[in-house]
Design a protein that fits this description.
Elements (H helix, E strand, L loop, with lengths): L5 H24 L6 H20 L5 H18 L3 E3 L2 E3 L1 H18 L3 H25 L13 E10 L3 H14 L4 E8 L5 E10 L4 H11 L5 E8 L8 E4 L1
Antiparallel strand pairs: 1-2, 3-5, 3-6, 4-5, 6-7
Length: about 240
Amino acid sequence: MHTLTTFDFLIRLVTGVGCGALIGVERQWRARMAGLRTNALVAAGATLFVLYSEAVADTGSPTRVASYVVSGIGFLGGGVILKDGGGVRGLNTAATLWCSAAVGVLAASGKLILAMLGTLTVLAVHLVLRPAARLLDRAPAAGSDPDAQLLATVHLRCERRGETHVRALLVQALAASRLAPTGLRAHREADGELTSLRATVAVDGEATSALEQVVSRLSLESGVRDLHWHLEDVADEAGREVLV
């Protein structure tokens, strides 16, 4: 029966942690929730658990421990999956943690080449398939999917002296309609008498009523000269415009 030596232990542990760290570098670079340290620790934990079963020389134990590792990582991955409005975030991160644990199990089992190949495969999925997914991903037309996330922009021009008041009303009107602005820009025009405001918000596929409420509220202000909104991913003729 093969006895796990200290040298073998170190080689397998270093390989497992190194593979997890390589996966984590890509996640860290993209500023994801689980980055370099998290993936390295997940791989280290999976490697250590399987190495323990190897160290006690139980022939059936490594397989059982590996199955427990899979269950444990599933619980850990559930902690990084978050509900964001009508969608879910963190699925890629959870799947990456699962893969980090898998390469750790391979390394602990002495399959060092297979662990490295698995690491390269995970990195290839993130680096190669990401551009491919963006090419295949097409934004739906406005109104075609009520749960689709779109970007809408509200434009208005107001008198310079009322800029602060109108800007506060714009933010208040968006909040009242449950529209969270992702960007707000103010630009003073060359004549110095008018200011242009532009607010970008993330909206659902059916956002006409909410945006019309914002426009109706702001159009009552005497200092507002013109006001309109449009969806960023549809043609200009699909937008709505109100001149005040």
